[in-house]
Predict the structure.
Amino acid sequence: MTRLAITSPRQTNARSVSRLMAILLFCLSPGILLSCWFFGIGILLNILIATVSALAFEAICLIFRGKNPKVQMKDLSAVVTAVLFALSIPIGMPWIFIVAGIGFAILISKHAYGGLGQNPFNPAMTGYLFLLLSFPLTMTTWHVPIHDLTGSSISPLSIEGIRQSLVASFPFLAFDSNISTALIDGMAMATPLTEYKLASPNALASALSTDTSLWSRDASTGWEMVNIAYLLGGLTLLGLGVIRWHIPLAIIGTVALLSLAFYSSTSAAITGTPYMHLFGSATILGAFFIATDPVSAATTPSGRLIYGVIIGVSLYSIRVWGSYLDAVAIAVVFGNFWAPMLDHFFKPTSYGHKSKFSQLVKGLRL
Amino acid sequence: MNFLARLLSSQHSTAVHKTTGGITPAHFKEHSLRSQIMPTPLPEELWLSLKQRDGKMLESLVSVGDRVLKNQLIATPTTAYGAPIHAPTSGQIKEITAKHVVNSFAERQLHIVIAVDGQDKFEPLQPMTQYQSLSASQLIEKLHDQGVGGLAGTDFPTPGKLNLTMQSQTQLLIINACECEPFITADEALVREKAEQIVLGAEILQQASNAEKCIVAIANEMSDAIQALKLALANSVIELVLIPTKYPAGGERQIVQAVTGKEVPSGGLPSDINVLIQNVDTAYAAYRAIVIGQPCISRITTLAGTPLKTPKNFEVLFGTPIPFLLELCGNDVLTHESTIVGGSLMGVTLFDDNVAISRATNCVIAASLKWFPDLPAELACIRCGDCADVCPAKLLPQQLYAFSRSQDSENLEDQNLSDCIECGACSYVCPSNIPLVQYFRASKATELAQVQQSQLSEHWQERYQYRQYRLKKDKEESKNRKARLTKDRSTKTDSADFSRSKAKADIAAAVSRVKKRKTESALRKTQEAQDVTGKSQT
């Protein structure tokens, strides 16, 4: 009885990459569904277009790289990239932009570097940045329910609302071009963050003071609720051990501290309120779902904390002092630049070795 | 209630420190713990490996055809890394031949093969009743003679360990009963049934190591064994410490961390921080060696796995072939896929089942597809960090993996690859099914090969330089000799005359010497003759 060499350990646990990714998608779903409720099915169309194109690009890349797509695509990483990308871009993006962005994410940012596990930058965010730099206007035009502006009673989930969303994603579906453009223009509205960034301070102040009803189907409230759903999903991810606490805590903590430190009632129109920074923007989504992408993030415990702080600081700085609207993508990619260095310098002290400090001194001497 | 229970139990046990990493895999222990430890019938043959831990060979004291008795010394160690072998039963030496061993793939080593005669005739035992009065070094010598040690998997002879700790004053002796790996129940069964003997053995080991304090560390889920130990320790100064059950809590370094809160320095031994660790198996063997006088010829081995009808713990003679044991348990050949020696996490899957039980074999698993399905394909590392969370050595397996793949030896060293204890916790949790430990073993082997290569090249460089030096020296010498010869030739006649006259003088001297001796001997003979006649007259 002779056999091939089988190596230890022979026992493994049941976790797999595809399961981790599936849990991640599951934890995103409440936020996505609430988004639908508040803003229409545009977000689902985004996700659909992004996912289909991501899987197509992924399959093409894998075949060209001589891998078996049937095995490799089970990891669902392309789907996660697609969904995160779709959540970052404005609702109701024309389909061709989405395909272009996903193409950049999968082809250039992921497979050109050697596929899953090898990409130094977050593919979804590099795809987003590619679109932001190429089509700045489209990327900053957010579509929200028409009734917010006109006071009409079209619900986002009514047939008319769905039609509007479809037309926004697939402009060629609009046979009556006059109406459709009017509708799209009418649907275009900023996120709370855009509003604060571009609107006059007075308008913002009044918006902030009057906007108290949480359950009204109102744009800014919708964003809060969606963010709370993302927060719950993120905490579930933490609880299930899919992500570690370091990065979300560091990002949210840094943003909260900075926005508190620079907050005063007189300058709220310029610096924004802490509440708005956390729940009126993509901070929560970024902290729990995007920045925690393990491939491109720092991988040591202390490295992760610093990585989170770097992202938090750049997030706040770009929002408040920079010229971009929301800065999660830029901040995350900026953090990605730091990750290899953080991994090198901030290693945990191995068993039986001297303290971290002496190791740092040794590392700096290199 | 829980708090109360902890308060009550804290009277018995010292506080336990937190250990890093670790996993809690499924145990698979209950099956083999159902029955008591059983002796095995005598197998037809026993295969006793002559290899020592340092790779050198024991010296065999018997040759083919010799008859041996049980307990008879048949091989002695050549260095401090070996333990003497005693014949586990009576029989005839059939052959001394190369056979497969557990820990190396397809490698064969010298074994003494005993054809068992089934009569089990034995040499009388020599118990030491007054062992309390012996000194530490006398005890160590006795333990060495009885072949105690190396039962805990690392094969490190106990007397060597004891000697090591004699030099560095041992403060703490830890008797390790934290058998944390799935499937293995040999220690638990032993403690359950032989707690009193283990305590006596622990006292002997404490006496031999001059340790100030002795602790028995046991996993907190082994309730029966804990009960037995508590009873046995009732009148003893030895303390009981309950270690939280996780894998690898029973590792040497992890036990030290849990009991003392200190870490064994990297590359060092527990003796560096004045701690000595011995397995319960060793304590039991020490008891048998000293109190009963029984040399170490057997150990407790767990047989487990679904193909076995009756998984249980056996008291197995060293050298018992594994197929014999599997058959004894009713092995179902149809579902038996492979054999693992050791637990499911660090155990070695056998290349060839025809391997014998050695000192270190604490478990044999008959693996079936039910509990050991084929591992799914290896996927890309996503650097999730699960491995780093469970690493007991606080390493970063995800980084080590990347550097292993790129064969970046500088960074591997920087990431402390050598501190990896190869426990397999990282591979266990890896969601991408990467055989991380295998990568690390390969990298370690490459590092070792590189070191050996550089040593070898240094050696050859030295030899080359020496050769160059020698050639140069020879050249110079021959030049000198030539110069001397030419010089000699110029004075040749003088020296030749001189030597000829000298030879004549030598010859004359020799002739005179011989003459002198002859006259002397003639003189002595006449004197002796006179003495004899004088004696006879009186």
